[in-house]
Amino acid sequence: MKFDKAKRAASLDLATDRDVARARTVVGRIMKEQDAKVLMQTRFVTAVSEIARNAVRHGGGGTMEVYLLPGGRIGVECRDEGPGIADVEAALTDGFSTINSMGRGLGGAKRLSELFIIETMPNEGTTIRMTSRLRGGR
Amino acid sequence: MKSAAIYPVEGVLLVSIQDDITDTDILDLQDELSTKISEMDAEGVVIDISALDIVDTFVGRVLAQLTAIARLLDAETFVVGMRPAVAMTLVELGMYLPENRTALNLTHALSKMRDTASE
Lengths: 138, 119
What we know:
The complex is a heterodimer of chains A (about 140) and B (about 120).
Chain A: E1 7-14, H1 17-33, H2 38-57, E2 62-69, E3 73-80, H3 88-91, H4 105-112, E4 116-121, E5 125-133
Antiparallel strand pairs in A: 1-2, 2-3, 3-5, 4-5
Helix pairs in contact in A: 1-2, 2-4
Chain B: E1 4-9, E2 12-17, H1 23-40, E3 44-48, H2 57-72, E4 76-80, H3 84-92, E5 101-103, H4 106-118
Parallel strand pairs in B: 2-3, 3-4, 4-5
Antiparallel strand pairs in B: 1-2
């Protein structure tokens, strides 16, 4: 899954926790403009917050692109050039944490999104793409 | 600009959290609140999250920690103003906040606190 043909709605740098807050605000505003349902918006913005924080804390910062997808969907691509995730399956398990954070973040983001794809390579970084419907269903 | 403010109201500390709060701000809040509870000998803490569009795992964890810290300092914590969509999302994340007492708003929290105190 790539978002090549989708319409890009925003592009953000993720360097500090202020940028994480901004990512939440921007994605929330875009979904609101698209008349998204409140629950879909709450779930997806929560997922965005988790992956943006991961990019800042674990990935040494990164970028986030927001796309409007066909079929009433929104997509987010979050890219960092950090150390990568050694064991993706473990990282998606509730309770797993490498730096004493709570360890529900990545698994939570996966659960709250419709599609959730991680590409990661040791020492090259991590890219997460995830989507949500704007209205109804998952 | 501060993204959280603490006000003393009738022996209770009312904490209002703004929507754009960062992880750093919320950790600062945790420090400041712990100090104020002790200084003021507050009997309770009411954390108003009605301005928050979302509560993610980090904020959820800090709310749980604030409650635990307040309890050790002999103050009871209520979380008020949680939006329905936030509650649904937290449950999906497996974050049930079992330590937090919740109330719909400040008035309800204060009256629940008085009820507990008079028991």
